[in-house]
Amino acid sequence: MRIFPQTRAGNIRLAFLLVVLLIMFGRAYAWPFYWYLSYHPQEGDLIFQSLPKIDIVEAIEGVSGSPYSHCGVVVSRQGKWRVNEALVTVHDTPLFEWIARGRGARFCVYRLKPEFGVHIPALLKALEKYQGRPYDARYRLDDESIYCSELIFKAFKDASGIELGKLMKLGEMNWKPYAKTIMEFEGADPPLDRLMITPGHLAQAEQLVSVFTNGL
Question: pTM of the predicted model, to two decimals?
Answer without folding.
Answer: 0.87
